């Protein structure tokens, strides 16, 4: 009989495959499974460890991984890991549960011998007897305490069918977690079939490298196609109204990704078209970038809750999307910018309200070192965005002291993750030694634009 997993256990196995592939290994070993269990917000395995006085970060530190070659394209459970999964199934039957949960996988790992995962757990003073006894107390807690904080919707293509993504505000925390799950599926090579034969229109008023390429490649890999439309092709708002363009496009294509100067243009497209419209960048927000950024944080750090995310630079469209997304994922957000370069007031108020509702901190400061202090993530963007070239010299003067360099990185945590949405102006907002240094996750971040947008398209189509 096939083994049935809970959503959290299934997610842990997927993360285990990611861990193995990242290290260039085609087989998932017990240590990868253990690391996979450390992903998530509030799973039963993590709650069990917490009751035993062990943090997920301690487990990650205790696991000794080998590898480091080119990433593997696929990964399968090794014979030893398959046996551990079977033992987890036995734990499930013994406890009277119907499905294998993350806690059963953890107990099976504790029962195993002769592998790095078992050695790491014992090094932390954990034993099967101690954990299984504590699990009995956990099982007696109210359901609301034992369940994950965010109930992730079943990972399935089309779970946001027909919806627009104009702002991060269009997504609930559950929507975001669902997109992350679908992204993980796609990145592991499990391609949804619901986009096959469909067409995405790319309406771009601004030139682009990452956005255009990643949307185009995403549609191709999903079995669909894209068509690129420049300002010269449409003349939107001059030769023809935005609403008329939208009404024509909805008869020809299945979705629109629009990269425009004015946010109102994308809002008007979404209001007039009966097909999904995705904001691929406006002067107000860049939601696709923010989603890819936080997915990268989740990959690198295994969690987002309780993290300090520090953005150093202009309070621009990327910063505004990030500050709206951070509280949804339980992340504290600090922005450091010169006076006069703060985000727009209404988004600041939205971010403050969201932080209060989700129990996170939101701060704006003019001191880059204060923002960087004890940060888990350091993020920057160009000081002068497209369309602001005439302000370049003034901005360079105003942003002096807001560069992410070695001195600023030393203020953050030792394992701080440094991100930049690119393109980077080396020597201005970020120093070469940081962008090319060991803490940078910029190239993984750029790659994840492809995977998160593929997931988004599979979700809305």
From TrEMBL:
<dbReference type="Pfam" id="PF02861">
    <property type="entry name" value="Clp_N"/>
</dbReference>
<dbReference type="GO" id="GO:0004585">
    <property type="term" value="F:ornithine carbamoyltransferase activity"/>
</dbReference>
<feature type="binding site">
    <location>
        <begin position="385"/>
        <end position="386"/>
    </location>
    <ligand>
        <name>L-ornithine</name>
    </ligand>
</feature>
<keyword id="KW-0677">Repeat</keyword>
<dbReference type="GO" id="GO:0005737">
    <property type="term" value="C:cytoplasm"/>
</dbReference>
<feature type="binding site">
    <location>
        <begin position="286"/>
        <end position="289"/>
    </location>
    <ligand>
        <name>carbamoyl phosphate</name>
    </ligand>
</feature>
<dbReference type="Pfam" id="PF00185">
    <property type="entry name" value="OTCace"/>
</dbReference>
<dbReference type="InterPro" id="IPR004176">
    <property type="entry name" value="Clp_R_N"/>
</dbReference>
<keyword id="KW-0808">Transferase</keyword>
<protein>
    <recommendedName>
        <fullName>Ornithine carbamoyltransferase</fullName>
        <ecNumber>2.1.3.3</ecNumber>
    </recommendedName>
</protein>
<feature type="binding site">
    <location>
        <position position="449"/>
    </location>
    <ligand>
        <name>carbamoyl phosphate</name>
    </ligand>
</feature>
<dbReference type="InterPro" id="IPR002292">
    <property type="entry name" value="Orn/put_carbamltrans"/>
</dbReference>
<dbReference type="GO" id="GO:0016597">
    <property type="term" value="F:amino acid binding"/>
</dbReference>
<comment type="similarity">
    <text>Belongs to the aspartate/ornithine carbamoyltransferase superfamily. OTCase family.</text>
</comment>
<feature type="domain" description="Clp R">
    <location>
        <begin position="2"/>
        <end position="141"/>
    </location>
</feature>
<dbReference type="GO" id="GO:0019240">
    <property type="term" value="P:citrulline biosynthetic process"/>
</dbReference>
<dbReference type="Pfam" id="PF02729">
    <property type="entry name" value="OTCace_N"/>
</dbReference>
<feature type="binding site">
    <location>
        <position position="381"/>
    </location>
    <ligand>
        <name>L-ornithine</name>
    </ligand>
</feature>
<dbReference type="InterPro" id="IPR006131">
    <property type="entry name" value="Asp_carbamoyltransf_Asp/Orn-bd"/>
</dbReference>
<dbReference type="InterPro" id="IPR006132">
    <property type="entry name" value="Asp/Orn_carbamoyltranf_P-bd"/>
</dbReference>
<dbReference type="InterPro" id="IPR024904">
    <property type="entry name" value="OTCase_ArgI"/>
</dbReference>
<keyword id="KW-0963">Cytoplasm</keyword>
<dbReference type="InterPro" id="IPR036901">
    <property type="entry name" value="Asp/Orn_carbamoylTrfase_sf"/>
</dbReference>
<dbReference type="InterPro" id="IPR006130">
    <property type="entry name" value="Asp/Orn_carbamoylTrfase"/>
</dbReference>
<feature type="binding site">
    <location>
        <position position="259"/>
    </location>
    <ligand>
        <name>carbamoyl phosphate</name>
    </ligand>
</feature>
<feature type="binding site">
    <location>
        <begin position="421"/>
        <end position="422"/>
    </location>
    <ligand>
        <name>carbamoyl phosphate</name>
    </ligand>
</feature>
<dbReference type="InterPro" id="IPR036628">
    <property type="entry name" value="Clp_N_dom_sf"/>
</dbReference>
<dbReference type="GO" id="GO:0042450">
    <property type="term" value="P:L-arginine biosynthetic process via ornithine"/>
</dbReference>
<comment type="pathway">
    <text>Amino-acid biosynthesis; L-arginine biosynthesis; L-arginine from L-ornithine and carbamoyl phosphate: step 1/3.</text>
</comment>
<feature type="binding site">
    <location>
        <position position="317"/>
    </location>
    <ligand>
        <name>L-ornithine</name>
    </ligand>
</feature>
């Amino acid at each position: 009989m096939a083994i049935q997993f809970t959503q959290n256990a299934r997610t842990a196995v997927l993360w285990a495959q990611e861990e193995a592939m990242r290290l260039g290994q085609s087989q998932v070993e017990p240590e990868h499974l253990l690391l996979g269990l450390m992903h998530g917000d509030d799973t039963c395995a993590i709650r069990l460890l917490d009751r035993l006085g062990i943090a997920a970060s301690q487990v990650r530190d205790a696991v000794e991984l080998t590898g480091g070659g080119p990433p593997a394209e696929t990964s399968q459970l090794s014979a030893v890991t398959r046996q551990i999964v079977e033992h987890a199934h036995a734990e499930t039957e013994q406890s009277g549960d119907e499905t294998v949960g993350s806690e059963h996988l953890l107990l099976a790992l504790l029962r195993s011998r002769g592998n790095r995962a078992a050695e790491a757990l014992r090094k932390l003073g954990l034993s099967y007897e101690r954990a299984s006894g504590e699990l009995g107390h956990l099982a007696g807690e109210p359901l609301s305490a034992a369940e994950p904080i965010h109930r992730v919707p079943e990972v399935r293509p089309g779970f946001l069918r027909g919806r627009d993504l104009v702002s991060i505000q269009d997504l609930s925390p559950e929507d975001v977690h669902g997109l992350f799950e679908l992204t993980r599926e796609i990145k592991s090579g499990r391609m949804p079939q619901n986009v096959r034969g469909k067409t995405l229109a790319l309406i771009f008023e601004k030139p682009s490298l990452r956005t255009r390429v990643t949307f185009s490649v995403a549609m191709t890999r999903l079995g669909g196609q894209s068509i690129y439309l420049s300002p010269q092709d449409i003349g939107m708002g001059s030769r023809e109204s935005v609403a008329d363009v939208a009404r024509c496009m909805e008869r020809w294509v299945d979705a629109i990704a629009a990269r425009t100067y004015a946010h109102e243009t994308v809002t008007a497209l979404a209001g007039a078209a009966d097909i999904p419209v995705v904001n691929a960048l406006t002067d107000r927000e860049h939601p696709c970038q923010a989603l890819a950024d936080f997915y990268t944080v989740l990959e690198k750090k295994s969690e987002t809750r309780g993290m300090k995310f520090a953005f150093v630079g202009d309070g621009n469209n990327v910063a505004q999307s990030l500050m709206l997304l951070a509280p949804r994922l339980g992340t504290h957000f600090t922005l450091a910018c010169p006076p006069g370069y703060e985000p727009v007031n209404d988004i600041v108020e939205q971010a403050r309200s969201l932080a209060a509702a989700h129990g996170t901190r939101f701060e704006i400061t003019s001191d880059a070192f204060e923002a960087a202090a004890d940060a888990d993530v350091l993020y920057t963007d160009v000081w002068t965005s497209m369309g602001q070239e005439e302000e370049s010299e003034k901005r360079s003067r105003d942003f002096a002291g807001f560069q992410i360099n070695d001195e600023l990185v030393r203020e953050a945590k030792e394992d701080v993750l440094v991100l930049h949405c690119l393109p980077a102006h080396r020597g201005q907002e970020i120093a070469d030694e940081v962008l090319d240094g060991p803490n940078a996750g910029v190239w993984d971040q750029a790659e994840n634009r492809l995977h998160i947008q593929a997931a988004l398209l599979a979700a809305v189509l």
